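Box 3.1 A note on notation
Throughout this textbook, protein chains are presented in two layers. The first layer is the amino acid sequence; the second is a token string describing backbone geometry. Keep the layers aligned when reading.
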Amino acid sequence: MADQQHKMNLAGRLAQSFYQSKITVLIMIAIALFGLLAVTVTPRLYNPEIVVPAAEIFVMRPGSNSEEIHNLVIRPLEALMASLPGVHHTFGYSVNDMGIVTVEFQVGANEEKSLLEVYNQLSRNMDKMPPGTEQPLVKSIGINDVPIMTVTLSTSQLTPVALRQVGTRLMDQLQNVPDVANATLIGGGRQAVNVWLNPAKLASAGLSLKNIQQSLQGNNVILPGGHLVNDNHEIPLRINGALGSAQDVGNVIIGSHDGQPIFLKNVARIEEGAAEGHTAISNTAGLANRMQLPAGTNMPAVTITLAKRPGTNAVTVADAIKAKLGRLEQEALPEGVHVTITRDYGARADDAVSTLFEHLSIAVGVVAIILMIFLGWREAGIVILTVPLTLGAVLGIGWLLGQTINRITLFALILSLGLLVDGGIVVIENIHRHLHGCAKGGFANCVIHATNEIGNPTNIATLAVILAFVPMAFVTGMMGPFMLPIPIFVPIAMIASVLLAYTVVPWGAYRFLRKKAAKAADTHSHAGHETEHEDGTQAPPDALQSGYLRVVTPLLESSGRRNIFFLIVVVLLLLAMLMPLWQFVRPQGMNGPLSALGVNLKMLPEGNVSDFMIQVDTPAGTALDATGQVAQAVGDVLSHNHYIENFQTYLGRSAPVDFAGLVRGDMMREGSNYAQIQINLVPRDERPMSHTVAVEVYKALQSVRSRYPQAVIKIFEVPPGPPCVPRWWQRFMARITKNCGNWRGR
């Protein structure tokens, strides 16, 4: 024993320092409080936040058609942006009078630095822009542009203008909720003065559209008019010539004839109302709607989108929005306006995290039961004590490193749960092995010696596990930052677990196994060694040991049996390795039904979320009403599905963007031949997997595809992982978007 004390390794030294130290209890309390604090304050999200810096550059050149914009503005601008370091991809898009270039940087690039490089590149090359080009507008795009909540207001009792005004007032109130970054309003009618010109009267007056445009611009002005000084007081003057009503617009003088003024109202019909729109939004009740409306009830709608500030907790922000929305719904909204929360990433994140916490607790409980069966309740209790302490330390360190609590974080903890109890089990087993050989006064030395004995092998095993996960930190693309919590949390969990195994387990063993050791020592001194009878023969093994011996002994005694056993293991290993390959060559095809005993090969399991999307693309030049007919036919199918609560149709534009849509470029998509339908399902405990519902809807839409063969109807599910867009998909999107103008991708 003295020789061993001089050869103490890390495990032995830690055990010797902490097994009876009072500071051990303080450390345990501190770690527990640290973990509770981390669970409370760490932001909860559904997925890890992936930084993909991007920017949209809007360039106006009035009077140019889409081909001119494409060749004179977009192509040179794309080349300038593509020359920037760190640019992953550029997309060019042009219509009459305007073009857009989207610049996408590498995943994980510094967002502020990337935007600064875009601004600098534009400033240095403004002199190369063709004459007539206006100052470009740069708008950043990032993960925080994705709204965490959308609220849809729908009614059949208000005009589109009145509904938009209600939505604007509600949006202004919700935007004041703490940690809400920005809010936008989609849909409804904008208040406007519509001028319907009479071509015959305009021609008889000898006037042109340009005359009317110049007259309106000259009369609709607000200018500073200098100032007056009176009695040592300066009074500022302003010229207020703004046109505020249809009467003001009608009284604008646009010319003269025979010495008489010609008013705009003399050549046009002027009305106040909604501005002419090229989009339409509606909310439709499904069979499972909670508003007690008949299925298929369709109402005009507006949608409020709300995004959170970077680094804030999606759960708390969403809860605060819902609390204020509940008060405003009772106090400020007109009767007959239906309020529907059509996206709630806070609830989704909280549900996913709570479910994984529940599974983590179940896993801890299962481990505890197994340890109690095979080690005894005292030994099991000591090992289980290290589990919450390890989890608390890991979550606390993750909080300090800027990580969030999301489903990948908790997956890493569940993955490492079976590994992080290994150190404690090895230490407590070795202490238990030395238990019966310790003298009554030497139990402390036995604890230290037992811990020291397994220190180096345990350290090597822990290092091997850590090295197996570290390479995941170097994965590139979107999958890298998406899976980054695993190579962060698993090594931290392993290191924390082995340190606690060397400190807390010896401390617990010394406190709770001393009586057991003393009893074993007394028994040993009176009856001899416990594994031998008085006649020197060995005591019979227990049931577990007997079963193990019956399996292993024949293999040790016979080389033939050993070879057969190894052959069976190799064959089973090869069959297991062939299972993924069979998915690619099976007669049913990769996406066909599974073969007998088949297993799907996927990077990640299908998510079970509460929504998915349908996109409708009709041929170029299709009128908005014709596209609306296809969307209506799709809606008729959706309204008969028992799992759909409601759905929103965005005709002529995209639905509120999610992260997958952000990567697809949905924010840029609009046109009379385009529509998206956002579908919301009942809670997941009331339906099958969302993928199953989506497949059911896809099959039901076959009749719509037959009626409208020229329309392309696609279903977009929420991807279980990051939305990685392959190049073939980018080329496909480029082809189907040509109807809105010219589209290029670099």
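The domain at 192-223+240-274 is CATH 3.30.2090.10 (Multidrug efflux transporter AcrB TolC docking domain; DN and DC subdomains). The chain is about 50% helix and 20% strand.
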